[in-house]
Backbone:
């Protein structure tokens, strides 16, 4: 402010002094003041232009009050821009975090219209952002159980289970949460796996009681029928059946214990380098001993020289289980092939047969405890219904996967694929 006054005073005095020389002092002073006012006006005008379009125009470079105003505005702008950058950063991070959430999140407006949705909302509910911006959510989720949740304020916060609008097999848990007055947040979680586990646990308890009750009922029946007067020949004829039933119970309890040990990790893995070719050879010999009366052909197909660093007892019992199953569940004369190969799944050990095969809808459930394709035939074959569950757990402990493929009338293939970390070159000592 002071600088402006001094500048005006100096200019007018100088003009007055020059005017004095021409005896026109007042005119000169007036003209100088007028010029100064016009120059000032011009700078205010430039300032306005700069304020309106700061990127296009340059700021006026007049020293004094205008310059001060410009500097102050520039400072404010810089501060604002920094604050904006910070807020944009926070918003971006928040959006990235919610986008990465496995749960679907949809922000709903007052009338249930979509205002924002994360990536999981697309995968679980089929709500796509920004495509579905402003679309009412009940047009996207049409399950009858959802409408009351959306409309009844008393039900806000409660949880309902619905089928996913984009995948009938997916079960979702939905919850609506109110915030900031009329805004609501729809949260959806995939509970397909939890429901499956609950069903498996329920089935397991029912199955285990049923499986143990059957042989027990037979044994109790015999015991109740026996009296002091029972003829010895009747006792003798009952004994094999009683022995068979108690053996079945014994095997079942043994397998249940093995499973529980594998599951709880109670038994530590004893990893040793194992010659797979040799292991398969000895399993084949055991299988030939088992199938004494039935004529199966067991072939070995060793395509690679690799060894496995594994708990050889566990892997041996898993592969034996697959081979014995192939012997049990295929007709006489069937061909069973044990293969050790490298393919797109990695190093894999497979047991393949050309038996009757298994219908496709059973394949996913085969490794469930007590799951049987043909209950009558299986119990005749002496199975406990736990063999494949044990195989799956043994493989899981080794980081390996069991892939089952089968075709009715063609045969089945049980393929165990091992992670590269435990597959090593042949070890020679
Ligand atoms: P189990 O102790 O009864 O043999 P598993 O868990 O080993 O139980 O097998 C589950 C079911 O899978 C068996 O009951 C049988 O119906 C079916 N299965 C297993 N292996 C084969 C195979 N190679 N061919 C046909 N069916 C099979």
Residues:
């Amino acid at each position: 402010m002071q600088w402006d006054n001094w500048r005006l005073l100096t200019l007018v005095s100088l003009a007055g002094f020059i005017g004095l020389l021409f005896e026109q002092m007042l005119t000169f002073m007036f003209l100088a003041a007028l010029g100064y006012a016009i120059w000032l006006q011009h700078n205010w005008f430039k300032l306005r232009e700069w304020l309106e379009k700061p990127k296009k125009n340059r700021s006026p470079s007049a020293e004094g009050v205008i310059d001060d105003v410009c500097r102050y505005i520039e400072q404010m702008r810089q501060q604002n821009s920094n604050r904006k950058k910070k807020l944009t950063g926070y918003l971006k991070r928040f959006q990235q975090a919610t986008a990465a959430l496995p749960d679907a999140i949809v922000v709903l407006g007052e009338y249930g219209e979509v205002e924002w949705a994360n990536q999981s909302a697309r995968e679980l509910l089929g709500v796509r952002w920004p495509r579905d911006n402003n679309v009412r959510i009940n047009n996207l989720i049409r399950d009858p159980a959802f409408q009351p949740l959306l409309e009844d304020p008393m039900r806000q916060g409660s949880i309902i289970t619905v089928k996913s609008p984009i995948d009938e097999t997916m079960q979702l848990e939905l919850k609506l949460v109110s915030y900031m007055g009329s805004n609501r947040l729809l949260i959806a979680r995939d509970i397909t796996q939890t429901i499956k586990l609950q069903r498996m646990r329920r089935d397991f308890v029912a199955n285990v009681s049923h499986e143990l009750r059957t042989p027990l009922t037979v044994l109790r029946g015999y015991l109740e029928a026996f009296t002091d007067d029972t003829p010895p020949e009747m006792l003798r004829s009952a004994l094999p059946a009683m022995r068979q039933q108690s053996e079945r119970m014994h095997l079942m309890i043994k397998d249940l214990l093995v499973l529980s040990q594998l599951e709880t990790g109670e038994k530590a893995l004893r990893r040793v380098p194992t010659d797979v070719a040799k292991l398969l050879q000895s399993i084949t010999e055991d299988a030939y001993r088992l199938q004494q009366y039935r004529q199966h052909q067991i072939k070995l197909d060793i395509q690679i020289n690799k060894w496995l660093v594994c708990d050889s007892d566990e892997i041996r019992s898993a592969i034996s289980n697959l081979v014995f199953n192939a012997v049990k569940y295929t007709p006489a004369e069937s061909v069973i092939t044990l293969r050790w190969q490298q393919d797109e799944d990695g190093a894999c050990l497979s047991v393949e047969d050309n038996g009757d095969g298994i219908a496709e809808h059973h394949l996913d459930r085969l490794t469930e405890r007590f799951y049987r394709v043909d209950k009558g035939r299986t119990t005749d074959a002496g199975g406990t219904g736990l063999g494949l569950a044990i195989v799956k757990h043994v493989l899981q402990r080794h980081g390996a996967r069991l892939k089952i493929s089968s075709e009715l009338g063609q045969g089945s293939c049980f393929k165990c694929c091992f992670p590269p970390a435990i597959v090593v070159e042949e070890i020679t000592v």
In short: The pocket of adenosine-5'-diphosphate is lined by residues 325-326, 329-330, 353, 355, 358, 366, 371-374, 378, 383-389, 412 (CB under 6 Å). The longest strand covers residues 171-179.
